Amino acid sequence: MENEWIDTIDTALKIGLGALIAGFFGWLGNRQNHNHELNKEQRKRRIEDLQKKEDRFVDFLSRSQNLVQSHLYTSLDAGSNEYQEYLRSFNLLQISNSDEVRMAAYNLMDATNQFAIGNKNTPDMDYQKSLRKNFDEKLGFFQKVAQLEISKTEIT
After folding, report:
1. Of 70, 90, 119, 137, which residue is least crowded by CB atoms under 10 Å?
2. How many CB atoms lie within 10 A of CB 98?
3. CA dihedral for 65, 71, 77, 81, sign (positive or negative)
4. Which residues, including other chains, have CB under 8 Å from residue 96's CB and lie 6 or more apart?
5. How far does Cα 29 stand from its chain's mean position?
6. pLDDT of the chain along its 156 residues, tens only?
7. Residue numbers of the domain that contains 109
8. Are residues 56 and 104 in contact, defined by beta-carbon separation less than 8 angstroms?
9. CA torsion, ordered 137, 143, 149, 152, to nearest 10 deg
10. CA 122 from chain center: how many Å?
């Protein structure tokens, strides 16, 4: 009779210990799955943020080039919708990037303004060429800074 009681306790302990082990490994698996899902969402979010940043860089670069190209021989009206959209693009970069990107964007905007808004009524070709050269240099520098900014964003 005493052996039956010990066998019953032994069986109950084995069942309880088995359930405890199964529960622990179930919890551990669930936790790892949850962490994996969180990491997957974070990677997805970083990729979306990186794409948004790239789009803003390309938009600003394109608008800068468009303003200069479309105002080779005429001065830009600073009150135009085209220029207002350009300023919006510039301001998006200013509030959402590092100081290095912000300074490069400012220098490019300044060179764009000098060229596009400058007086085209009495064109001094040497002066116009120097403005265009300045714009091209600032454009290239901004492109490199943007490239470095994008490439330093690690997606793991």
Report:
1. 119
2. 12
3. negative
4. 53, 56
5. 33
6. 677 888 888 888 888 888 889 999 999 999 999 999 999 999 999 899 899 999 999 999 999 999 999 888 888 888 899 999 999 999 999 998 999 999 999 999 999 999 988 777 766 788 888 989 999 999 999 999 999 998 886 665
7. 2-152
8. no
9. -110
10. 42
Cβ pair 96, 56 in contact under 8 A: yes
* φ/ψ of residue 74, rounded to 5: -130, 155
CATH number at residue 15: 1.20.120
| Single-letter amino acid, residue 61 | L
CA-based nearest residue to 134, from 112, 155, 156: 112
The conformation of residue 119, written as its DSSP 8-state character, comes to -
- Cβ atoms of residues 105 and 93 within 8 Å: yes
**CA-CA distance, 128 to 148, in Å (whole number)?**
30
pLDDT for the residue numbered 156:
58
Two structure tokens written together for 16? 């309880």
Residue 46, exposed/middle/buried by CB under 10 A (0-12, 13-18, 19+)?
A: middle
- Which tokens hold the place of 144? 């490199």
**Are the C-beta atoms of 64 and 134 separated by less than 8 Å?**
no
Amino acid identity for residue 92 in this structure: L
